[in-house]
Amino acid sequence: MASPASAQGETEGLSYASAGVSIDAGNRLVDLIKPLAKATARSGCDAALGGFGGLFDLKAAGYRDPVLVMGTDGVGTKLKIAQMCNIHDTVGQDLVAMCVNDILAHGAEPLAYLDYFACGKLDVEAAAQVVSGIADGCRLAGCALLGGETAEMPSFYSDGEYDLAGFAVGAAERDRLLPQESVEVGDVLVGIASSGVHSNGFSLVRRVVTDQGMTYDEPCPFQEGVSLGRALIAPTKIYCKALLPLLRDGHAKAFAHITGGGLLENIPRVLNKDHSVQLDASQWDVLPVFRWLAGCGRIAPREMARTFNCGLGGVLIVPPSSVDNVLESLRASDQTAWRVGEVQSRGDRTEQVLIDNIDRLTQPIAVLPPRPRRTTGKRVAVLISGSGTNLQALIDDLGKPGRDHAHIVLVLSNKPDVRGLERAQKAGIPTKVIPHQGHKRADYDEKLHEALVAADAEIVVLAGFMRILTESFVHKWSGRMLNIHPSLLPSFRGHTAHEQVLASGVRVSGCTVHFVEPEVDAGGIIVQRPVPVHPSDTLEDLQERIKVEEHIAYPEALRLLATGLVHKDDDGRVVFDLH
How far is residue 200's CA from residue 98's CA, in Å, rounded to a whole number? Predict the structure, then answer.
């Protein structure tokens, strides 16, 4: 006989999983990362996970009079680029580097590391990649990954988002702590090369990319063979193994990790108030990424120097008699290093860091030439009015191996001097500007049609084309013209879709690629991609997430149309032939 509860059809009680937290997923992650942590074992610690705390034996590590040195940090908004690019295997090294390089500035050897991984919904595969990067960083630093915390917090973070924090414990012999009081006028500054932006200043980096109307998956303009996103998130260098022998042997009096605050804010942290330093920017290689950022963002040299490392991930202060030995030792450890300045008396100067030839930090770079374009498949014309980020997504997708279903033969704009035209020209695509001022709608649309016919276009793609097309023009290109809209049509039509979404309180929006009909945003739907809407979202937050999905949806829809897998029948219905 059924119980009264089951007879009445009552549902089961709540569980942790029904609230959005999967203990099973957490256990799977632990199983995946246990061998990664075990591989970081060292003297003083076996790096076994599973206890309530991590243990470290200082005596077994060989210390006689140790002072513990601790540091904590995160990766900051560099994570947003990594998540947008779906690159998770390098940010763990960033996390470790930011902590261990900091405690290295006190002469400390990193001994143990703990991490904190927080997310809305645990993606075991992505989290395992992150922890794999943390383990890699620990091996590079010579410290043990003792443990960590994985926090799954539904509604606190959106799906696909996570944040990281780390904590490093190190030790130094009391008589080897840095910085030393013996730093004096005439001591030499030795700069050690960075790998790129490292993990500071990414709010400014992201602003530059946004203002340029660029996407992270487009080809990098300053580094050949990689995407812009991949180049920007190059992992932070870890300097421990190269520097510890020098610090232990007394060859360096101080070490400054060039982190948040750049050269101008970090070098003074290892100086006394009576000293300043004179740097010469002509003595080290300013990496192309910094000159590109400065040029695109019109960032002043001093602002560059107080925001970024500008090519120097760390600066040692050494006595003149040790310079040659220090440079030789660093180069033997595969580090690029230069003599970049010296310690001076501060006098009555306010600033403690002066930089000769500072304009080199913003010296322009040559932009890489475009890749050869394919000329196979359907002939596509793209109509734009602005920055052309969706145009760039199409260019990038059609440039991938095996993408022979279409090629862009013309980019046409109703406005001159817009970023989208630059993108097309950079890719070697013909462009044309037909200004709309002074034309009646019908006359203007006829000029558009003539230009498209002259280019032998077979498909027309609207990528931010801010004109309402006449019924006559739409009929001429019926079934051959696509548009993208930043909502899940038929909801939230018009040019204020994002504002409508936020005002409505819905929890899901997205983007829609559809055939163009005379009625605005009313054509048959080809591809849709959903995007969660969070209570804390600003207009910019929602725009940014939907734009990422647009850059996936538009190439997919073009492929379906160009290969005949979708078409519009005589009755205006969308027909799919996916078999």
Answer: 9
C-alpha to C-alpha distance for 162 and 83, rounded to whole angstroms: 8
CA distance 214 to 392: 8
Q: Is 71 helix (H, G, I), strand (E, B) or coil?
A: strand
405 is catalytic: no
CB 40 within 8 A of CB 143: yes
Among candidate residues 257, 436, 449, 485, the one labeled active-site is: 485
Dist CA 62 CA 43 (whole Å): 9
CA distance linking residue 173 with residue 476, whole number of Å: 80
pLDDT tens digit at each of 579 positions of the chain: 444 444 455 557 877 777 777 777 777 777 766 677 677 778 877 666 667 877 888 888 888 899 999 999 999 999 999 998 999 999 999 999 999 999 999 999 999 999 999 999 899 989 999 999 999 999 999 999 988 899 999 888 888 899 999 999 999 999 999 999 999 999 999 999 999 999 999 999 999 998 888 888 888 999 988 899 999 999 999 999 999 999 988 899 999 999 999 999 999 999 999 999 999 999 999 999 999 999 999 999 999 999 999 999 999 999 999 999 999 999 999 999 999 999 999 999 999 999 999 999 999 887 666 555 556 799 999 999 999 999 999 998 998 888 889 999 999 999 998 999 999 988 889 999 999 888 899 999 999 999 999 999 999 999 999 989 999 999 999 999 999 999 999 999 999 999 999 999 999 999 999 999 999 999 999 999 999 999 888 998 899 889 999 999 999 999 999 999 999 998 889 999 876
Amino acid found at 426: K
Three-state DSSP class for 541? helix
Nearest to 408 by CA among 432, 439, 443: 432
352's CB contacts (< 8 A; 6+ apart) are 267, 268, 271, 275, 276, 277, 346
d(CA 329, CA 322): 11
Nearest CA-CA partner of 507 in 525, 488, 490: 488
| CA dist., res. 266 & res. 353, Å (int) | 9
What is the C-alpha to C-alpha distance for residues 381 and 158, in angstroms, rounded to an integer? 36
What are the DSSP calls for 314-341, one per residue?
Answer: EEEEE-GGGHHHHHHHHHHTT--EEEEE
| Spatial distance between the Cα atoms of 258 and 208, rounded to a whole number of angstroms | 21
Q: 149, 116 in Cβ contact below 8 A?
A: yes
Q: How much is the pTM?
A: 0.69
Pairing of strands 162-173, 66-74: antiparallel
C-alpha 457/C-alpha 520 separation (Å) is: 23
From residue 474, alpha-carbon distances to 358, 448, 454, 468, 493 in Å are: 55, 11, 17, 10, 18
If you ran DSSP here, which 8-state letter would residue 157 be given?
Answer: B
Q: Residue 548: which of 23, 97, 174, 83 has the closest Cα?
A: 83
Within 8 A by CB and 6+ apart from 384, the residues are 391, 411, 412, 413, 418, 420, 421, 463, 464, 465
CB 477 within 8 A of CB 516: yes
What does DSSP assign to residue 201?
-
Q: Which stretch of DSSP H or E encloses residue 548?
A: helix 539-562
Residue 382 and residue 384: Cα distance in Å, rounded? 6
